[in-house]
Amino acid sequence: MTVLIAVLLVVSSQLTITGMRSAADRRTTLQAQYAAESGLAIAKVRLRDTQAILNGVTNPDGTISPVLEIPKSTKAADLLSMAEGYCGKTGSAAWTQTSAAGTYPVKYECSAAAPAAGDNPNRYKVLAVFARMDRMPPGLAKGRNLKTNTDLQTYFSQAFSPTGITTTPTGGNYEVTYRLVPTRVERTGNTNFKFYMQVQGLQSTGTQGVSTRVLNARSTQQSEIWFQIALPSFVDRVLFTNHHTTTTGTRPNFTNQVFDGPVHTNDRFTFAAGATAQFKSKVTSAGCTAYNNDGTCATNTDGSLKTKPGLYVGGTLNQLGSGGITNLTGLTSSVPGGVTFAPVNGVVTPDWQSEFQPMPENAEDQAAAANAGGLNIPTGATVTLAASTSGSSVVPPTSYSAADKKWSPAPTYQFITVKNGATTTVYRVDAAGKMDVQSGSGWTTYRNPFNGVLYSNDGDASKTGNITISGPGRTTTGQPLPAIAGFSQLTIASEDNVGIASDLTYSDVPCKAPDSCASKDTPKNLLGIYSQSGNVSILKSAPDDVNIHSVLMAGEGEVNVQNHDSNTVCTSYDWYGRCTATTGRGKVNLIGGLIENYYGAFGTFSTKDPSTTTSGYGRNFSFDERMGEGVGMSPPYFPLSPKWKIESPNSASVALTNLTWQQSAR
User: Fold this and answer.
1) Which UniProt keywords apply (predicted)?
2) Do residue 341 and residue 264 come from a single domain?
């Protein structure tokens, strides 16, 4: 009995010691787990700060201060060199064309080489050289002692290195390592570069005594981020205004319009009280409060632009920092309740502090393109465009399918007829891009290849338009005949006014998702019309319910309707043939976009029924989605903004920290 009691006491004491050891082990294991999770939290903060260099730093009121700013003097060749450096490759062999043949602009992709220990220190220069160090995320700047752009470049070189960056805090019980990797660069032409990166690896190790816990991360599709440096295109909006006013200072209201494409102003938008406008894509405004004479935004004494997020409602200005509006959410709440905005790719819209996008300074690029491979048009000339199924003379296609939005037989030639006084010159362009000029009864090669640019200078202010553009007319049933062949891509540019005298339509019309033809191949035909110093005007000679398939741009003037307040059609006559009642000319049915320095007038409307046009035209605009972000097509050599712009996702749905985690063994 005595022996049994002794055995029980020994066993009991051993169980107690084992239990004490198990409790201690559990405690140290838990402490090691907490340490690993602390390291993970620190790494996520570092990754968020790293991404903030690209997205900008968010201020308490919701505004964003950009960290990267590209000087206007930056050359496209410099960015091309940086893009190839980021890829770890050089020369034309670095790039693979990704766009279809015959599509403008041409798109390329460079797949990044894996980082190596001996990489050139300048490989990641593009991430650091444009940074404003006074706007760096403070935690990252302090934690990595980043004081100069060289310091920042060193940080990125380490972050992208095969070993990454390891952090072990003084007195801490964790070690965390994270590593980034460049994935690719996408390039559009030579003025648009999109850089991609993601987390290659992240490991956090926590230790406590003999216990070790390890957390490993893996990237996901949502953890690949990008930033884009570009001379921005204007054609990716259905409406772009520099001044959101008429030339006389009147502010046109958004009322009941429906915008199916992106809308931007460098100014501030104006909403009628009780407005019910619908915006189905991005809505952005820069909020410029004062302009220079050349249309650029005025600057403060520190060189920053005079901008403030704001909008007008019923003639009253609502802006950030006044009237009880303390943040951007409050500003959005001041929009009339009937107005609807659609989120775009998870990004909140509208954006009341978008970047100011200057208008083009001149038409030199278009002039140079016309001289190099295009066509120069004499002042005062009329240019008639026609799609033809014959190369001998204009023979329009005979059948239009409303279901497919396409003419047949498919046109095989683009005719361009230039009439200047008593002189008429006829050009034709085939699907391969060869331009011939008519000479007697035959044809002579004029350009091979023709680059699609027509340009006119030496304007005459006494003329309605420096040049006038017309199409081939309408069928006997009123269907506009196609002006632009399915393969044709044209930009018509003038230093002065451009007049549109008739329908200008595509032979292969782009489709939208609800259309029955939405699955057809993307049409190639494009038309851009650009006036640098004058206006683009729809003339009195244009038909009722005119149809225009084009991007229309007025760099210093406006896109308008000639005599918009007196241009009417008679609907009733008395016995003597005198007009007793008039109405407006119907609508401008536009597929494309409007880009203008000032918001031009199209018509006047009934005060009792704003949907009734009393003179001029109403607006029926539809965005050409081929010119949006997904496809990115543009008429050849169409103007770009002269200021480099940086864009990034700036959305929680796309972030370096969108990783998957797993517990791992040491």
Assistant:
1) Signal
2) yes
Q: Report d(CA 619, CA 640) in Å as an integer.
A: 25
Answer yes or no: do 351 and 413 share one domain. Answer: no
pLDDT for 15:
40
With beta carbons less than 8 A apart as the criterion, state whether 496 and 533 touch: yes
* Joined tokens for residue 194: 């999109």
Q: What is the 3-state secondary structure (H, E, C) of 261-300?
A: CCEEECCCCEECCCCCCEECCCEEECCECCECCCCCECEC
Say if 640 falls within a structural domain.
no
The DSSP H or E segment spanning 22 is helix 2-55
Same domain, 46 and 138: yes
- Residues 294 and 239 both lie in one domain: yes
Instruction: Give the pair of three-digit tokens for residue 497.
Output: 């006014």
Nearest to residue 531, comparing CAs of 563, 567, 562, 556? 556
Percent of all residues in the chain with a pLDDT value above 70, rounded to a whole number: 93
- Select from 358, 386, 420 the last residue of a domain: 358
The contacts of residue 318 (CB under 8 Å, 6+ apart) are 310, 311, 312, 325, 331, 334
Angle 523-527-533 (CA atoms, 0-180°, nearest 5)?
160
Give SS3 for 140: helix
End-to-end Cα distance, the chain: 49
Structure tokens at 338: 């009937």
Identify the pLDDT of residue 651. 67
Query: Could you give the CA distance from residue 89 to residue 123 in angstroms, rounded to a whole number?
Result: 10
Question: Do both 211 and 255 map to the same domain?
Answer: no
For residue 122, report the phi and psi dihedrals to the nearest 5 degrees. -85, 5
| Residue that the structure tokens 């005025």 belong to | 298
- Residue linked to tokens 């690949």: 224
Query: Residues 106, 75, 367, CA angle at the centre, nearest 5°?
Result: 65
* Domain with 276 in it: 232-358
* Identity of the amino acid at 391: G
Q: At which of 358, 392, 415 does a domain end?
A: 358
pLDDT at 303: 85
Together in a domain, 462 and 535: yes
Quick check: is 641 in a domain?
no
